[in-house]
Description:
- This protein is 29% helix and 18% strand.
- By secondary structure, the protein is α/β, with parallel strands linked by helices.
- Helix 1 (20-27) links the parallel strand 1 (2-6) and strand 2.
Amino acid sequence: MRIDVLTLxxxxxxxxxxxxxxxxxxxxxxATVHCTNFRDYTTDKHRSVDDVPYGGGVGMVLKPxxxxxxxxxxxxxxxxxxxxxxxxxxxxxxxxFQEFSQLQQLVLICGHYEGVDERVREHLVTREIxxxxxxxxxxxxxxxxxxxxxxxxxxxxxxKAASLVEESFEGGLxxxxxxxxxxxxxxxxxxxxxxxxxxxxxxxxxxxxxxARTQERRPDLLD
Length: 223
């Protein structure tokens, strides 16, 4: 998979993309990430990527020309998605990671300022994604979250593929509680069923815990 990030701050991605499982996956070329500063695609002497909004108002708006030129200069590996990271987009969910991990290419556009010229939304991007109901200084953090969530689903990134099956949000439920050694800590004990060796009973306990935890913490998922 190829991931292209259009950003005014390519240096933002340097350290995160080199760390942990993400760094290992990129080093082994399970995916490649290419950061493009779309300021390089401006044509005026001031290298302007933004301008005042028509109709008045506070803030600045990202111009369409550099974004279109930057995307059009990229190689095209279909199937691909061109995604704008914006608070107005679809809330990012696990199923987005699953869907995007099946593509050959992701193009991520990191928004800034008051937003982007509407013609970018209408004629360039294919999806709009939001990290949540809040506003950040730019789209770099949401883009990094999307990159991480997608790459960890690629074959070989996570050592045990089975560990991806019972995670939170898989099957619409939160994950069950986890315990490890020691069996007793400060008077708090690991549930006996997890130490029983009875795999059927353990599976039943975990499923009940997933349902109960989801009902308690995220009943909206059960709807």
